[in-house]
Amino acid sequence: MKLAVIGTGYVGLVSGVCFSDLGNDVTCVDKLSEKIELLQRGEVPIYEPGLKELIEKNTEAGRLRFTTDLTAAVQHADIVILAVGTPSLPNGEANLTYIMGAAREIALSINGPKVIMTKSTVPVGTNEKIENEFRQFSLHPVSIASVPEFLREGSAVRDTMNPDRIIIGTTSDKARQMIEELHRPLTDQILFTDVRSAEMIKYASNAFLATKISFINEIANICEKVGADVTLVAEGMGHDKRIGSSFLKAGIGYGGSCFPKDTQALIQIAGHVDYEFKLLKSVVEVNRDQRFNVIRKLETILDDLSGKTIAIWGLAFKPETDDVRDSPAFEIITSLLQRGAVVKAYDPIATDNFRQNLEHAKVKYCHSAKDAAQNADALCVLTEWKEFRNISPTEIQAWLARPNLIDGRNIYTEEELENTGLVYYSVGRPNMN
Ligand code: NAD
Q1: pTM of the model
Q2: CA–centroid distance, residue 257 to ligand 1 (Å)
Q3: Hey, whose CA ends up nearest to atom 44 of ligand 1?
Q4: ipTM given for this complex
Q5: Residue ranges of the UDP-glucose/GDP-mannose dehydrogenase C-terminal domain (predicted)?
Q6: φ and ψ at 309, to 5 degrees?
Q7: Ligand 1 proximity of 377 Cβ (cutoff 6 Å)
């Protein structure tokens, strides 16, 4: 099948590349010429395990190409995939400027009937707006479908190739049949729905996962006060098939380009129909507060943070990605700076992206974990990169000026900490303090 993918971010690039690997003819389009030039040279603008190899393989096979020429790409395609960003507006609503802009451009470019498949996360009713855009600006018939994306950054290629399910929300038989054919090699778990339900499935899924995270974080906070261990509590809960063990890891809360914006957007979607989503509002509030436990714990140990040097390990919102959008590290570091601390920060992959958003005289970006920890008054682990797990607490203690470790992701075990003189605080494991 011939595909044009509009937007070569985490979703568009990975989907386009994976669809080409299945034998489809794929043109990836982006407005940003620097991004397209990079891809045309065989370089990859994002860090995603396995992606570079697949790009090389499929470009060489002639099934995959990159362009800024949207018109040519959509004219050549049977299916046009919308994968542009839908970031938050200041009030939390999804900003539809990019998706409606792309829809208009496609409408003005098409030269025949097309299937339009929306992968971007969009509020309920948006695909109807997209359809109207085509009615207004094109003479050619289009079949619209909402096919929300569920990949996770850091394992995006694997997730795309092995999806838990594919949701196809459409009223068009043609779109249904073509999109089903496109996804059949990936899974048998295909659920057909109406468009609005498909749009809602994406928000409801992310809101539910965010709820699990805030739930276990609150349990962790209570564990700290009653002397229970949240990792054992989560394990005990997770064996119950009705609950499941995933998304029950206590920590400093969720971040990234999806959960924060999608939870806020769903609160707004509900608000527009006069429904106050009280549960989700609490989930967001709990998450916002959870990251500041790192600061509270530092103040418990060091009292006044002014003039203290704090090492930060991990700037990405989670491991195996260079994405720093809504990473908890921003608020934690900003809060340290407000308290007069000096920060030495290190991340295996995401430092450049982070620095572009936070340049400050009192933040030194370091080239290694050791560099950051050396002579610091405390070390805070904010992202559970494997690299950090492989460094022993004894080594950490030797590097630090004062033996204080705040483990925001519970990466160290009781055994590893035995016989060290570290003052150690993790999340919901008071027995290890
Ligand atoms: P992104 O910001 O990484 O990429 C979007 C790209 O679209 C950018 O490169 C931008 O230049 C390009 N673009 C914008 N307007 C364009 C236009 N008119 N023509 C061509 N290119 C255009 O976004 P992303 O993280 O890939 O997310 C895309 C969508 O998928 C969002 O709605 C997001 O919520 C959703 N989603 C993201 C993830 C994720 O993990 N990142 C997972 C599931 C769903």
Answers
A1: 0.95
A2: 10
A3: 149
A4: 0.99
A5: 311-414
A6: -100, 120
A7: no
